[in-house]
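note to self: dont lose this again. the chain is below, predicted strucutre after it. 280 aa total, dont forget to put it in the shared folder this time
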Amino acid sequence: MWNSTDPEESFRNKVIWWSAVIVGAALIGVGAYYRFRSPQPAPAQPAQTPAPPQQSAAPIPATPPAAAIEHPIPASGGQAASTTLPSLDGSDPTVIDALTKLMGQPAVSRLLVPKAIIRHVVVTVDNLPRAKVAADLRPVQPTPGQTIVNQQGGTTFLSRRNYARYTPFVDAVRALSMKSLASLYFRLYPLFQQAYQSLGYPNQYFNDRLVAAIDSMLATPQVQGPVPLVQGKVFWQFANPQLEALPAGQKLLLRMGPQNATVIESQLRKLRKLIVNPPN
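---
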């Protein structure tokens, strides 16, 4: 959805796909711990009736069992680095410094919101395959300008001129080395995993969620021709209900236009290959 006056659409869009490209990190390890409840005594029986044998209660887990890890990061990545990393809440300077080395100080100052970066990235990545992204948890600055639409025959369309609003950001992503980004991701992995665990996923692995988010975005359908919109109470929406029902990450790629989306998808494929099959 887009806000026709853009107070939220501007940062929400960048939140969604900055995260899909700069995210990194997940749990160092997860275990399943079970708590067993003591068998309850059988109810008292009349003296003339033999008491039935006691039956042990089934074990009840205190927390859900750990899900099988599909895409583990290399052991030399997050685990080895965990002893030298800062705390999660004190990690912003480390993240900013690392991104500055990757992108340059001007780009980082222009794009990044330097507050709770890892936590906000993790929340956004977790939301990418869902219907909505938490708009107030943004790791990047707002996209400048307002949503540009065209009117034709009583129908509102997303203007091709609107795609240009994303060009500076797309250019920055195009210039990123995915190999260097993956290396940073592995190094900071324990902090991202800790943030993911704190969301209420104590037995799930963040790298698996990142891969799922990337796969969701790569499954974005191709839309030919102008994209019709309708005005909701506050936001612009896709007129096609099937498009409006797409996950948040897929809708973002449609909003930024096919050329920009192609660049993002290409970089996501490179990143996915690196985090699923890291080089030896």
